[in-house]
Request: fold
Amino acid sequence: MQFLIFFSIVIVGFFLANYYIFSRSIAVFEPGSLLRKLFVFTFWTLAASYFVGRVLERIQISFFSDSLVWIGSFWMGALLYFILIVLLLDVLKITNYFFGIFPQLNTDNFQKAKTITFIFSVLLVAGLLVFGFINARRPIIKSITIDISKYSNELKELNIAVVSDIHLGTIIGNGYLSRVVSEINSLKPDIILIAGDLLDEDLEPVIRQNLGETLRMLYAPKGVFAIMGNHEYIGGVEAASKYLSEHGIVVLKDSVVLIDNSIYIIGRDDKESARFGSSSRKSLQALYDDFEIDESLSVIVLDHQPVDINSAVLLNADVQFSGHTHKGQIWPINYLVNAIFKVGYGHQEINKTNVIVTSGIGTWGPPIRIGNSPEILSVKLRFNSLDELK
Reply:
């Protein structure tokens, strides 16, 4: 029921946003003209394409359903920037009404101005989409070194590759995934950690493209570990967990592993487990208690959404890795992310806990990134020796 309510709100909000753009842009075309009819058809086809494509995917995946999802995904990005443009024009219109900042135009010149503005806006948004798509396919490596003031037996350093929010599915398939896997393996990590949303909801496109075999190529001598994100829950967490486990990835779902008797990896279940699953996730304190965590050893917490940072700080966890925010993915959403989350992106040391939120490596919705880059984290943990602790 919660999912249906959430989905209904999204649909209504998306329709209203489209209608706002439609109601402002339709005035560019002469009533009854062929161009006006073509515009109406094209606009609402674009607006409906994503949802129609996703419905068709549930029935049977095909080139047609893939095409609709791709078109609709780009339209989501275009819609955001069209809204910003129309809002700006409305503000200018209101300002002109009160202060007369623009010269008076006759009917013909006013129509020409509207047409030029419409064409310029379409070209500007198209350019942003092209730039954003290219940028979203150019991941960077971000290196971080952290000194841990704990002795970890014989382990002096640990090289970790961290990724999040790949969103494998119709939009992100084998081409991009193969590049990501190659980049990760080139770092020669000791361990690979995936901080949720590896899959983009529906599992069928992943199975059809056999993406699991590409994931199986990930290599780290101490293992590849993943937690579930909100999108795995939306698409069906049990099937997602099973698929990943069958392809060489250890899924941590409110569970803990001890690496080399030196460092704990705590994988928290996602915050949305109660909404889209059958039970709520455990508190971090409960996981410490249930697995009898030896707090003299180092602790890494994986928590997809950076909403419970305080728990890791209170329990003196050494590092928490999170994703989910995409650093906003599309400007200016990054400002909203920073307002919502205590740490929306980046590396902050809070007391003795290093909180690291990555922008992710993939995209959700619009296959574009503007104002940020997809990234792979290369994290080196350096531990104290016994002599240093004395």
User: Anything to note?
Assistant: Residues 63-99 form the longest helix (37 residues). The chain has 14 helices and twelve strands. Residues 140-389 form a domain with the Purple Acid Phosphatase; chain A, domain 2 fold (CATH 3.60.21.10).
